[in-house]
């Protein structure tokens, strides 16, 4: 039963990789969903997170500290985008593109060259790896703990007055301003938190892959968006807590779907097109869901009559 | 929740379609970082070398080619997949090699791993040293023969005094080569002027200005400039000075001359290593990591004739390819 084994591996890989990318998804969730801000900084900050973490570990900074500094780097980058948008009145998409472009040079400066490698250096994953001699379990456990901490903090934070103000700003800026909320500060803060999580995802990714390179950011926004929508469609967004969990599960399922595409042995030259089609389908899922529900409703009405 | 199970069911059904693997065949996995002329050629060379030694895809070996097109999460999955299932792995380009080597280490599996098209495998932490790779990893590097390339300058223009070097500032690999080229050129008594561009948008101005001050141009392998060789071609024609370039493809697209790495040959060299591992049971750690010793001399005779440079007969005799 080779294919049963294949499924097991696809699911394992999806959990292991999807959890790392779920932090990216949570970051993009904050900008796109909570703030309703199409932030393109992400492609630069995920690279920045991996660059900072890798460069610092190579400079013998403890991995945990390196990861935290990477997170702070993302926070700063997000704040810059927010500043460009709110203070300098640059349109959202353009502000993100400007930050992303600038980050390219900054990331190259941080790494010193286009790719750096950790070799046998200890990473944030080494701690559990040294205790548990099972790569999947130890790695997943580490990422899982990080994700749990982040989700708990997010759940708490977005329930505080500041967190609520950020959510209100995203829902209706004019109304929020009328309530006395400083929406400019809220947008800057929201984008900073969003990019902090994205950089954290990059930092974990680099430590998992034991390398950082300039290509990692390519296409990350689409991955994040697709993961969010999959999660929302399958697991719902009834409450904020439910929404957060949906987004994380969405990330894992997205990775499983890509895993299936690879396992099916699809021609690698066509993989990008298939990914694009897959993502277009996923992004249109809410429409199909609506149509399906409408039809069901109709059927019920007819059935009842 | 119901939908989740429907999805899972779909997943299971989809996987059921995956053909059965034939376990009698030797599984050879190839992870290629992205689609690119040079990397494709290396892959073909590798497969041809296996075939010449009697390892034919579908007969006694099964070759699986995966390509993430630089996508990090896809590459992580593909590396895991290959490490689990392969009896031998070829990784093409440094990021792919790093992913496979790291994954094998992580899983504690000692599948033999070969790499190719890696400029500096020691720096990338793939192997301990070129002579004694250690571990289960070895392969071939694609370092340019910069010494030989610079020697072409004086052969083409015997009274050349000044050499101008252009590369893209953000490409560290190009910077690395430019610095070596500078010291090689100074060693043969040339005065060197280095100019960088930030993108191909500056290429024309920078190259034109530099061409006025120097006798010969040198352009290392540089992804951005490689995509805009037409501009270099125009500068060469307008200023009537030749350009020594980093690799054969760029001569075809407008450079004047090079000694370069033939990626097909490089792949073939790697394939021969694979044959030693599969047929003679040699361990990768006993196979030194090497680069090509024989480089390809490519001359753009048409262009050099047009700008009035006489090519020495010995170069023409030695050339592997002449563009007429």
Strand order of the largest sheet of chain A: 1-2
Q: Secondary-structure element order of chain B, as H and E?
A: HEHEHEHEEHEHEHEHHEHEHEEHHE
- Alpha-carbon distance between the termini of chain B? 68 Å
Overall structural domain count of chain B? 2
Element-by-element helix/strand order of chain A: HHHHEHHHHHEHHHH
CATH class of the largest domain in chain B: Alpha Beta
Tally of extended strands of chain A? Answer: 2
Return the average pLDDT of chain B rounded to an integer. Answer: 89
Largest interface: A-B, 50 and 47 residues
Note poorly predicted spans of chain A: none
Secondary-structure-based class of chain B equals alpha/beta
Strand order of the largest sheet of chain B: 2-1-3-4-5-11
Give me the oligomer status.
heterodimer
Outline the fold blueprint.
The complex is a heterodimer of chains A (305) and B (324).
Chain A: H1 2-34, H2 42-58, H3 63-86, H4 92-111, E1 115-117, H5 126-131, H6 135-157, H7 161-171, H8 173-178, H9 183-209, E2 211-213, H10 220-235, H11 240-263, H12 271-283, H13 285-304
Antiparallel strand pairs in A: 1-2
Helix pairs in contact in A: 1-6, 1-9, 1-10, 1-11, 2-3, 2-4, 2-9, 3-4, 3-9, 7-9, 10-11, 10-12
Chain B: H1 2-16, E1 26-32, H2 37-52, E2 61-66, H3 72-85, E3 88-92, H4 94-107, E4 113-118, E5 137-141, H5 146-156, E6 162-168, H6 172-187, E7 191-197, H7 203-213, E8 216-219, H8 223-226, H9 229-239, E9 243-245, H10 248-252, E10 257-260, H11 263-280, E11 290-291, E12 296-300, H12 301-306, H13 313-318, E13 321-323
Parallel strand pairs in B: 1-2, 1-3, 3-4, 4-5, 5-11, 6-7, 6-8, 8-9, 12-13
Antiparallel strand pairs in B: 10-12
Helix pairs in contact in B: 2-11, 3-4, 5-6, 7-9
């Amino acid at each position: 039963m080779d294919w049963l084994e294949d499924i097991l591996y696809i699911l394992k890989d999806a959990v292991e990789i999807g959890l790392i990318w779920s932090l990216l998804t949570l970051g993009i969730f904050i900008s796109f969903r909570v703030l309703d801000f199409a932030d393109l900084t992400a492609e630069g900050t995920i690279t920045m997170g991996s660059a900072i973490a890798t460069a610092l570990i190579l400079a013998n900074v403890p991995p945990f500290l390196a990861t935290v500094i990477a997170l702070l780097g993302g926070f700063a980058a997000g704040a810059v985008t927010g500043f460009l948008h709110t203070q300098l009145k640059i349109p959202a998409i353009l502000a993100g593109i400007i930050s992303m472009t600038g980050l390219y040079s900054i990331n190259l400066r941080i790494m010193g060259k286009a790719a750096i490698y950790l070799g046998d250096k200890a990473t944030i994953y080494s701690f559990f790896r040294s205790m548990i001699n099972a790569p999947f379990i130890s790695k997943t456990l580490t990422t899982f703990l990080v994700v749990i901490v982040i989700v708990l903090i997010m759940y708490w934070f977005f329930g505080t007055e500041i967190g609520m103000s950020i959510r209100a700003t995203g829902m209706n800026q004019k109304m929020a301003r009328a309530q006395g909320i400083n929406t400019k500060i809220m947008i800057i803060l929201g984008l900073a938190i969003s990019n902090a999580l994205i950089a954290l995802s990059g930092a974990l990714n680099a430590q998992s892959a034991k390398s950082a390179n300039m290509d990692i950011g390519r296409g990350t926004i689409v991955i994040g968006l697709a993961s969010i929508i999959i999660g929302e469609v399958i697991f719902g967004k009834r409450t904020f807590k439910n929404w957060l969990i949906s987004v994380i599960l969405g990330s894992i399922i997205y990775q499983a779907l890509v895993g299936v595409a690879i396992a099916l042995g699809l021609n690698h030259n066509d993989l990008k097109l298939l990914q694009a089609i897959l993502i277009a389908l996923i992004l249109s899922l809410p429409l199909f869901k609506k149509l399906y529900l409408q039809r069901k409703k109709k059927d019920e009405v007819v059935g009842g009559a | 929740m119901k939908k989740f199970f429907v999805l899972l069911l779909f997943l299971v059904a989809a996987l059921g379609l995956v053909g059965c693997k034939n376990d009698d065949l030797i599984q050879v996995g190839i992870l290629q970082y992205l689609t690119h002329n040079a990397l494709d050629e290396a892959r073909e060379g590798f497969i041809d070398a296996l075939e010449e030694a009697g390892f034919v895809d579908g007969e006694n070996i099964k070759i699986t080619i995966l390509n993430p097109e630089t996508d990090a999460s896809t590459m992580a999955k593909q590396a895991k997949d290959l490490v689990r299932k392969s009896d031998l792995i070829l990784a093409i380009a440094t990021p792919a090699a790093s992913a496979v080597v790291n994954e094998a280490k992580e899983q504690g599996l000692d599948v033999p791993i070969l790499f190719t098209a890696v400029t500096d495998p020691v720096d990338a932490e793939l192997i301990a040293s070129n002579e004694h790779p250690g571990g289960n990893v070895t392969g071939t590097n694609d370092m340019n023969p910069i010494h030989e390339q610079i020697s072409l300058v004086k052969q083409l223009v015997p009274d050349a005094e000044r050499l101008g070097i252009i590369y893209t500032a953000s490409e560290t690999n190009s910077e690395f080569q430019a610095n070596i080229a500078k010291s090689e050129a100074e060693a043969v008594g040339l005065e060197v002027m280095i100019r960088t561009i930030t993108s191909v948008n500056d290429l024309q101005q920078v190259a034109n200005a530099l061409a006025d001050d120097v006798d010969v141009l040198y352009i290392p392998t540089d992804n951005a400039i490689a995509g805009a060789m037409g501009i270099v071609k125009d500068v060469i024609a307008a200023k009537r000075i030749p350009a020594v370039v980093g690799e054969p493809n760029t001569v075809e697209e407008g450079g004047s001359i090079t000694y370069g790495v033939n990626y097909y040959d490089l792949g073939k060299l790697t394939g021969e290593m694979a044959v030693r591992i599969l047929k003679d049971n040699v361990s990768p750690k006993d196979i030194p990591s090497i680069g090509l010793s024989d480089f390809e001399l490519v001359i753009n005779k048409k262009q050099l004739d047009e700008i009035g440079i006489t090519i020495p007969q010995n170069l023409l005799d030695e050339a592997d390819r002449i563009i007429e």
